[in-house]
Amino acid sequence: MLIKVLKTTIASKDESGCFSKEYKKGETYEIYDDLANVFISQGWGEKLVEKKSIQKLDNKAITNIENKSFTKKKSKK
Q1: How far apart are CA 62 and CA 77, in angstroms?
Q2: pLDDT digits (tens, 9 = 90+) for 11-53
Protein backbone atom coordinates (compact mmCIF):
# COMPACT_ATOMS: atom_id res chain seq x y z
CA MET A 1 0.00 0.00 0.00
CA LEU A 2 1.29 3.46 -0.82
CA ILE A 3 1.66 5.54 2.36
CA LYS A 4 2.73 9.14 2.97
CA VAL A 5 4.48 9.23 6.35
CA LEU A 6 3.24 11.95 8.73
CA LYS A 7 5.60 11.16 11.63
CA THR A 8 9.15 9.80 11.40
CA THR A 9 8.96 6.26 12.72
CA ILE A 10 11.20 3.20 12.94
CA ALA A 11 9.28 0.08 11.97
CA SER A 12 9.63 -3.28 10.28
CA LYS A 13 11.03 -3.27 6.76
CA ASP A 14 9.14 -6.42 5.71
CA GLU A 15 6.58 -8.86 7.02
CA SER A 16 9.19 -11.06 8.71
CA GLY A 17 10.02 -8.28 11.18
CA CYS A 18 13.71 -9.21 11.07
CA PHE A 19 14.84 -5.84 9.74
CA SER A 20 13.84 -2.32 10.68
CA LYS A 21 13.75 0.86 8.66
CA GLU A 22 13.33 4.54 9.41
CA TYR A 23 10.28 5.91 7.64
CA LYS A 24 10.80 9.68 7.38
CA LYS A 25 8.09 12.33 7.72
CA GLY A 26 6.92 13.70 4.37
CA GLU A 27 8.24 10.77 2.34
CA THR A 28 6.13 8.25 0.43
CA TYR A 29 6.72 4.51 0.78
CA GLU A 30 5.25 1.29 -0.55
CA ILE A 31 4.54 -0.57 2.72
CA TYR A 32 3.05 -4.03 3.21
CA ASP A 33 -0.64 -3.89 4.16
CA ASP A 34 -0.46 -4.89 7.86
CA LEU A 35 2.13 -2.23 8.68
CA ALA A 36 0.38 0.33 6.49
CA ASN A 37 -2.80 -0.18 8.49
CA VAL A 38 -0.85 0.42 11.72
CA PHE A 39 0.57 3.65 10.29
CA ILE A 40 -2.93 4.81 9.37
CA SER A 41 -4.59 3.81 12.66
CA GLN A 42 -1.84 5.42 14.78
CA GLY A 43 -1.85 8.63 12.72
CA TRP A 44 1.72 8.08 11.54
CA GLY A 45 0.74 7.99 7.87
CA GLU A 46 -2.01 8.37 5.34
CA LYS A 47 -2.96 6.14 2.44
CA LEU A 48 -2.32 7.52 -1.02
CA VAL A 49 -4.48 6.46 -3.90
CA GLU A 50 -2.70 5.97 -7.19
CA LYS A 51 -4.53 7.98 -9.78
CA LYS A 52 -4.40 6.72 -13.33
CA SER A 53 -4.89 9.41 -15.85
CA ILE A 54 -7.87 9.15 -18.13
CA GLN A 55 -5.60 10.11 -21.03
CA LYS A 56 -3.46 6.99 -20.54
CA LEU A 57 -6.52 4.76 -20.36
CA ASP A 58 -8.02 6.33 -23.48
CA ASN A 59 -4.80 5.87 -25.42
CA LYS A 60 -4.54 2.25 -24.35
CA ALA A 61 -8.08 1.51 -25.54
CA ILE A 62 -7.41 3.19 -28.87
CA THR A 63 -4.12 1.36 -29.29
CA ASN A 64 -5.76 -2.00 -28.67
CA ILE A 65 -8.42 -1.26 -31.29
CA GLU A 66 -5.88 -0.07 -33.85
CA ASN A 67 -3.69 -3.15 -33.39
CA LYS A 68 -6.48 -5.53 -34.34
CA SER A 69 -7.14 -5.87 -38.02
CA PHE A 70 -10.29 -7.24 -39.44
CA THR A 71 -10.02 -9.05 -42.72
CA LYS A 72 -12.64 -10.79 -44.70
CA LYS A 73 -12.21 -14.50 -44.97
CA LYS A 74 -12.08 -15.72 -48.50
CA SER A 75 -14.79 -18.19 -49.18
CA LYS A 76 -13.77 -21.40 -50.88
CA LYS A 77 -15.82 -22.28 -53.91
Answers
A1: 37
A2: 999 888 899 999 999 999 999 999 999 999 999 999 988 655 5
* CA 49 to the chain's CA centroid: 8
Measured CA to CA in angstroms, residue 36 lies from 17, 44, 74, 75 at distances of 14, 9, 59, 61
β-partners of residue 10 are 22
Burial of 22 (0-12, 13-18, 19+ CB in 10 A): exposed
Q: What is the pTM of this model?
A: 0.61
Cβ–Cβ < 8 Å for 31, 25:
no
